[in-house]
């Protein structure tokens, strides 16, 4: 039976070595929601995403994906259970072509990955034109599109993006926002993204979690996501 909780995080604590960063993070995201994680610099947004996908270990608390406790599983296992991750700074394979990057992503997605390969080219026609180009020679915006495409062909139920608009020119940011909306509408993917760019948040977030000092301190609910409510949480 489908769960009403794509992601449920309870009392999550994590950090780097002896330095705790997350001090008990709680969040619940419904299937198909698009949620922004916002907050000032250094409050722990990237650390939250890295703990959710399993790149750093939880020292306490639980993470459940579609009702299944994944707290103790590896990043690789979480990817196979449906978590797709687009890190800050893109991180595509720079010496491979666009096509080769997508084929590597398909290894996680299995048979449905191949169909999504074509969908990626529909979402991002620029990638279709440049399918044989070496990824490292493309612009930052094109590499961001490819990073999203590579995660998408892994056929994730749940996508996590860390500052997808960072270093990307505004016209491409709009295209990326449209693509994320389309991914949700056409495939039903749940999306959590860390973002500092007000326009991007206003364009796609249905709800926001506000983070301070390693905790979620408030939520901007659906219908209240506007510039006045968000701006105060974005200042450095
Ligand atoms: N690899 C690391 N080793 C040790 N401390 C780290 C490491 N990465 C981040 N930190 C520290 O963890 C805290 C939270 O950092 P994090 O990157 O999660 O914040 P953030 O909210 O994403 O900030 P920003 O908006 O600047 O990216 C900061 O104090 C940071 O210095």
UniProtKB/TrEMBL annotation:
What GO annotations for molecular function exist for this entry? Answer: ATP binding; ATP hydrolysis activity; branched-chain amino acid transmembrane transporter activity
The ABC transporter domain covers 7-236
Q: Please name the PROSITE patterns in this protein's record.
A: ABC_TRANSPORTER_2 (PS50893)
Is Cytoplasm included in the keywords of this UniProt record?
A: no
Q: Which domain of life is it from?
A: Bacteria
A Pfam family found in this protein is ABC_tran
| Coiled coil (residue ranges) | none
Keywords annotated in UniProt:
Amino-acid transport, ATP-binding, Nucleotide-binding, Transport
BP term (GO), one: L-amino acid transport
The UniProt entry's sequence similarity note says: Belongs to the ABC transporter superfamily.
What name does the UniProt record give this protein? ABC transporter ATP-binding protein
């Amino acid at each position: 039976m489908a769960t009403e909780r794509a992601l449920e995080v309870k009392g999550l604590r994590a950090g780097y070595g002896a330095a705790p960063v997350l001090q008990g993070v709680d969040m619940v995201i419904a299937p198909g929601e698009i949620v922004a994680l916002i907050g000032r610099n250094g409050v722990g947004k990237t650390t939250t995403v890295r703990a959710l996908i399993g790149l750093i270990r939880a020292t306490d608390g639980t993470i459940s994906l579609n009702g299944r406790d994944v707290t103790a599983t590896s990043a690789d296992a979480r990817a196979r259970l449906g978590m797709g991750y687009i890190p800050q700074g893109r991180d595509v394979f720079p010496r491979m072509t666009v096509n080769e990057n997508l084929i590597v992503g398909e290894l996680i997605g299995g048979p449905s990955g191949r169909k999504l390969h074509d969908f990626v080219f529909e979402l991002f026609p620029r990638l279709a034109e440049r399918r044989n180009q070496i990824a490292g020679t493309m612009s930052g915006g094109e590499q961001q599109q490819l990073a999203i495409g590579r995660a998408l062909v892994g056929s994730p139920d749940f996508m996590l993006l860390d500052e997808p608009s960072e270093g990307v020119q505004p016209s491409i940011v709009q295209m990326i926002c449209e693509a994320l909306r389309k991914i949700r509408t056409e495939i039903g993917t749940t999306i959590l993204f860390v973002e500092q760019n007000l326009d991007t948040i206003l364009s796609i977030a249905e709800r926001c979690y506000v983070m301070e000092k390693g905790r979620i301190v408030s939520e901007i609910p659906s219908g209240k996501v506007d510039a006045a409510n968000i701006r105060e949480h974005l200042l450095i």
